[in-house]
Amino acid sequence: MNNNLTALITGGASGIGLESTKRFLQEGFKVVVFDSAQDAEEKLKIKLKSITKNLLIVSVDVTNYQSIIDGFGKIKKADLKPNVLVNSAGISPPTNALHEYSIDDWNRCIDINLTGTFMVTKEFISYFLDTKVDHGSIINISSIMGVTASAAQAVYSATKHGVVGFTKSVAQDYAHKNLRVNAIGPGVIETPMTEGVLNDDNVMNALLSRIPLKRVAKASEVANLIYFLASDEASYITGAYIPIDGGYLSS
Questions:
Q1: SS3 for 100?
Q2: Which of 37, 88, 80 is nearest to 227 (CA)?
Q3: Among 63, 76, 187, which residue's Cα sits nearest to residue 113?
Q4: Which of 84, 149, 170, 201 could staple 7 via S-S, CB 3.0–4.6 A?
Q5: Domain 6-250, second-level architecture
Q6: What is the DSSP string of 26-95?
Q7: Which 8-state DSSP code applies to residue 9?
Q8: pLDDT tens string 86-103
Q9: Among 16-20, 108-112, 198-202, 223-227, where is mean pLDDT lowest?
């Protein structure tokens, strides 16, 4: 078991983040969740039931640097030394033609998906180095839109491309510290964020025609990949972008 290991998961109260929280707890990790949802703690305790013993939930807004610093202060106060970071906090903004795009929607997506990933990673690495943890792993959640693009998704695609580039650079910076950094590219996943897509028969028919496996993924399947990348089984993998898309990008 992994009783002496700690994972920090942003956006850990829903979707891929929630399933990741569950998987790491089941594997014996202590888990810290950074989430800005008002009911994050209540939701997690209901959904995770009996496995919340080693869970610390901290209200953190990943777009606010002071909030992130305060979050790490609570980690320090709890005497925890995370060696895994999962940057799962993210949004998928409304689709729109670029000339009709709201500046506020653009900035919010950049702030959460890209700048938030940067700021949390920055503080995690500083804490990782200060606490002299001997090995670690960062998993950034990009998307299939991190290496391709579709119409009316300029800002989402821009942020997810940015996460891939960010990952590859940071992996080179900290490999000598035995800190591995990888990105994953989920396709269409069953999460609260994709409910609108999943309930639109026309959109789903078009998407499934591009997916060789002819189905969407469960968030738990993505969590399996995240856990693998965090584990010693992936000890020689860093700087990688790994799609989990049912074959979408190959079609």
A1: helix
A2: 88
A3: 63
A4: 84
A5: 3-Layer(aba) Sandwich (3.40)
A6: HTT-EEEEEE--TTHHHHHHHHHGGG-TTEEEEE--TT-HHHHHHHHHHHHHTT----EEEE-----PPP
A7: E
A8: 999 999 988 899 999 999
A9: 198-202
* Annotated active-site residue in 127, 156, 174, 227: 156
Q: Which of 170, 167, 9, 164 lies closest to 86, judged by CA?
A: 9
> pLDDT at position 1, please?
57
What pTM does this model have?
0.96
Structure tokens that stand for 242 in this block: 């790994």
Distances (CA, A) of 4 to 54, 60, 103: 11, 24, 45
Q: Are 21 and 46 in contact (CB under 8 A)?
A: no
The CB density around residue 168, as the number of other CB atoms within 10 Å, is 16
Where do the structural domains in the chain lie, given as residue ranges?
A: 6-250
Which neighbouring-strand residues pair with 181?
A: 138
* Whether the predicted pLDDT of 45 surpasses 90: no
Which residue shows structure tokens 């707890």? 25
pLDDT at 193: 80
Structure token pair of residue 246: 């049912």
d(CA 91, CA 103): 16
Phi and psi, residue 126, nearest 5°: -60, -45
Output the six-digit token pair for 212.
């060789």
Q: Does residue 174 carry a catalytic annotation?
A: no
